[in-house]
Specification:
The chain is an alpha/beta fold and 495 residues long. The chain folds into two domains: 293 residues, Rossmann fold (3-Layer(aba) Sandwich); 129 residues, GMP Synthetase, Chain A, domain 3 (2-Layer Sandwich). It is built from 18 helices and 20 strands. The strands form four sheets. An eleven-stranded mixed beta sheet has the order 6-3-7-8-9-10-11-15-14-13-12. A hairpin with a 6-residue loop joins strand 16 and strand 17. Helix 14 crosses helix 15. The protein is globular and about 65 Å long.
């Protein structure tokens, strides 16, 4: 065992023990954090306009701070871009994280000197939780790769600006940089296919033990490795033991990954966002990801079925329930207040507080009032794949409101790695399972309002070609699993 490996286990145990304190007292930690955030920001423009100095409890908090998305905070962000300080948070942001918005165009999410360390700490603690639990210290001896966006930064006003993964790359702890790939030069390649080719060349001779990235882009990397070597990943990297992922549900990719790798490897799921690091998987045996309650974010939750009501229920961590689908709301030490990031989550445990990401509040199919969400379609597909053997690379669900003949239906556009023997039966099974999970959808089928779903196969790499055609191949970009219109579906059918 190397010195690094021998030291990693006691360090991991120390961190896990330290984190257990906030893990066991999550509600109190959150209550304290709410007051700390309010106190820090009460003299900012936002704090003055929203009477922070008068907030004495959570009820006051809700009265003074409305729920907003980026569009609602854009005016404040523009003031920061124009050079003003003390707007949303004291001083000026350390960075702007630039992301793509569907209605707002480019979004500039502030990252402060207080919030930046939490992005690093949470990712570190996820790995250390794994080491402490499994005693697998060998991963620290090999090379690690993080498939991510370019670390090159620009300026917006006088604020350094880039993609989240690129910003984080500048803050990787020194003890990790020697083992970390790809090189800075390779990371800066803008063309994603060229970048992955370069990463293949850089990593092939190396002892890779940890690989991290969004599943569809890691899959692309694995396929290129396999094509070049004609070997399974386990034979290329025999010490590859840990896959770290986030961004999309891993389950639809699991079989394809196991086939490409040739063995099962441990996984850690992360829930990082531009707005803050929200949760990470802290156990290989327990479901869900541990909510980061002491990482500069005060959380609120709105039941998703009430979200579009005039006065929806709005609660803090203290009142959440297991199994309820919530829209997650953030208040952060970078100056986001009552901020809706658009994600929906469910608690699978409240002691400790562990969550799963169930979908996007804006990503649903409800052209007929059924409100089918990502969790429902992903579970339906997973169960069907287990019954009728097949492998799926990617999929997208959209309504077909005006078919050439017959009743409307849901169209499932699926890129198969291995197509089922009977495609019609595959569709029947998915439809039956989806009806089980969504009673509104079932009522529409049985009531003769909708026809059962139809499957449209998409050619191999069709989703990648679509993403390339819109200039969003690679990085943190991904195709939404659901839509309430046909903007994506109609373009996908060309591939």
């Amino acid at each position: 065992m190397s010195i690094k490996a021998s030291l990693s286990l006691p360090f991991a145990k120390f961190i896990v023990t330290k984190n257990s304190k906030w893990k066991k007292n999550a509600v109190k930690v959150q209550q304290k954090l709410m007051f700390e955030l309010i106190e820090r920001a009460k003299k900012t423009k936002f704090g003055r306009e929203h009477n922070f100095s008068e907030i004495r409890n959570y009820s006051n908090f809700k009265m003074q701070i409305p729920i907003r998305d980026y569009e609602g905070l854009k005016g404040y962000v523009n003031l920061i871009i124009d050079g003003e300080k003390d707007i949303l948070w004291p001083g000026k942001p350390l960075y702007f994280c630039k992301t793509s918005g569907t209605t707002s165009g480019e979004k500039y999410i502030p990252i402060s000197k207080e919030s930046m360390p939490n992005h690093i700490t949470a990712a570190r603690d996820a790995i250390l939780s794994y080491v402490a639990e499994t005693k697998n210290t060998s991963i620290v001896n090999g090379k690690m790769i993080f498939l991510q966006g370019s670390p090159e930064l620009t300026k917006t006003g006088d604020i350094l600006t880039g993609r989240l993964s690129g910003i984080v790359a500048h803050h990787v702890p020194a003890y990790l940089t020697k083992n970390r790939l790809p090189s800075f030069e390779t990371n800066c390649i803008e063309n994603w296919e060229m970048k992955v080719d370069a990463i293949v060349d850089e990593t092939l001779p190396e002892n890779m033990s940890l690989i991290s990235g969004i599943p569809p882009w890691v899959q692309m990397y694995f396929e290129k490795l396999q094509k070049k070597t004609e070997k399974l990943i386990k034979d290329i990297f025999p010490n590859f033991d840990l896959f770290i992922y986030g961004g999309v549900n891993y389950e639809p990719y699991r079989k394809s990954f196991e086939k490409l790798i040739g063995k099962q490897v441990d996984g850690i799921e992360l829930y990082p966002a531009s707005e803050g690091f929200i949760a990470y998987q802290d156990s290989q045996t327990e479901e869900g990801m541990l909510l980061c309650v002491n990482h500069g974010i005060f959380y609120e939750f709105i039941p998703s079925e009430e979200f579009f009501n005039k006065n929806p229920t709005r609660i803090s961590l203290e009142d959440v329930e297991v199994g309820v689908n919530y829209v997650i709301i953030l208040n952060t030490n970078a100056g986001l207040w009552g901020y809706n990031i658009g994600d929906t989550i469910k608690f699978v445990s409240i002691n400790p507080y562990r969550i799963i990401v169930s979908g996007r509040i804006k990503h649903f199919t409800s052209a007929f009032g059924e409100h089918v969400i990502a969790e429902e379609v992903e579970k339906s597909l997973k169960e069907t794949i287990e019954i009728l053997t097949s492998e799926v690379n990617e999929f997208h669900v959209a309504p077909q409101v005006n078919p050439e003949e017959g009743l409307p239906y849901h169209e499932w556009l699926i890129e198969f790695e291995k197509e089922p023997e009977d495609l019609n039966q595959f569709g029947v099974e998915i439809d039956k399972t989806l009806q089980k999970y969504n009673s509104y959808y079932k009522d529409l089928i049985t009531g003769g309002i909708l026809n059962p779903l139809k499957i449209t196969p998409i050619s191999k790499n069709g989703f990648r070609e679509y993403m390339k055609s819109i200039g969003k191949l690679g990085g943190q970009n991904k195709v939404p699993r659901l839509a309430n219109d046909r903007k994506i579906a109609d373009k996908l059918t060309a591939f």
